Amino acid sequence: MSTSYTFRVLDADGSVFGKGCFTYDGPPGDVDIAHLLGGADGSRGPKLTAFWYHDSIVGTLSLKNLLSFNFTQGEQASSRFAINVWNVPESTHGLTAGTASPAQLGVASAHRGNGGELSCKGRKLEFPKLAEATTVVEEGETVIPTVDLVVVIDASGSMRDEADTLSKVVGTAIEATKTKCPSNLRTTYLGIEGTFSKTVFTTTVRNYLTQTAKVDASLIRGRTAAQVTADASKEDAARTIEDISTHFDWRPGAVRNIFFLGDEPLEGGLSLTPEGQDQEDIEAANRAIQVATQTGTRVHMYMGTGKYSSDAAKHERVRKAIEGEYARVARDTSGQFFASQDSLNAFEAMLEKVICGSKTDPRVTTTEFCCCQEYVEQRGDTAVPQ
């Protein structure tokens, strides 16, 4: 293997005046090299295979111009560096400098070329540094996810008083989030077997799936008022989650999200059990979770302020039981649960995480040190002769 080092000649003010580089056969570490022109007696150590030096006075000088060179580095000997490089036999351009150490600059005792004799300008020789690979870190690209969000509301009468407020709060949060970052969000508002005028919920789930998504009506699991009571059909939340997860016209590659707004148990509303929900509600939630998970659909749940009993203790018991199922559906589908209108403040933060672009990992490129000549002849960092 070979090892390269770079060094600099500094002007009196500390700015870079010239640059040099050399390469020898062997690994980095302890080394003792003495090079005399033509390999004359007195040369020792690893073979010097390349040497280049450039400044605006001498131009570019190479190994064939190197009269003498000494480089020692290691714990067993004093580290030192000195060079004597001239365009022999003319000797009109050249530099003699040394002896530099890691702690002390060497002196440029002879310096001649363009502009004549410029030896007494206070220029100094730095001790060489290992020419290491160049690492470039490029910022990751912004990836804007395609996100489909279906906002679904229980269209029963108990949600009427909240529908208008929720329509505004959810819509405002969505618009606010879209202003914060690049996004590719499509939002659809649907009601279960019903709609609410003067809100964004003006299309039913059934109409959207059969008319817009062109789904065969026989495939829809949500029930109609002819199959159950009118309110019960509007409270088939779990079945609706199944239907939207399976049949909605999701865009290819879209991140799928359902945001359900309701206040009743998930299978046809309140049951006559003391807890307000029964085993059918739990099993319906299980099926909804399974289908949503299989289709890669994240379900967020909002529980409104329903009235379950005139008895305060029973009301609270029923509310907690229903809330537990709402939270379970959200948790088990990697969604988020919101317990009241106040907690919708967190909806905007959640939505921002979902729709905002994320950056890919930075791209790190490492380029091994290549060429001494190219290094010393790079423009833009050496001075004009004074």
UniProtKB/TrEMBL annotation:
InterPro entries: vWFA_dom_sf (IPR036465). This is VWFA domain-containing protein. Gene3D superfamilies: von Willebrand factor, type A domain. It comes from the Bacteria.
